[in-house]
Design goal:
Length: about 90
């Protein structure tokens, strides 16, 4: 599956371009270096927008609009079962 950034709609919870520029500069500092074996299906911006949409609207993950990344791409689980974000390792 390829990234859907060209078809992702803007929601009131979505990051503006200015907000994304600020956050994007911080990502290398907070994301651990990771060898990537294949391209991401969804961009980090799309995953963050999905999390922000859910936080703002208080909906269940299953009720996210279909053009946003699904829960399994935004939040994973560690071996202990604790929730993590996909870029945390």
């Amino acid at each position: 599956m390829t990234s859907t950034s060209s078809v992702t709609r803007a929601y009131s919870s979505s990051l503006t371009d200015a907000e994304w520029k600020l956050l994007e500069r911080l990502l290398p500092e907070i994301l651990p270096p990771k060898q990537q074996t294949r391209p991401l299906e969804w961009s980090y911006r799309e995953m963050i927008d999905s999390i922000l949409y859910r936080l703002k609207n208080g909906c269940h993950w299953a009720n996210l609009p279909k053009d946003l990344p699904p829960i399994r791409r935004c939040i994973g689980t560690t071996r202990s079962g604790a929730p993590t974000v996909p870029w945390s390792g």
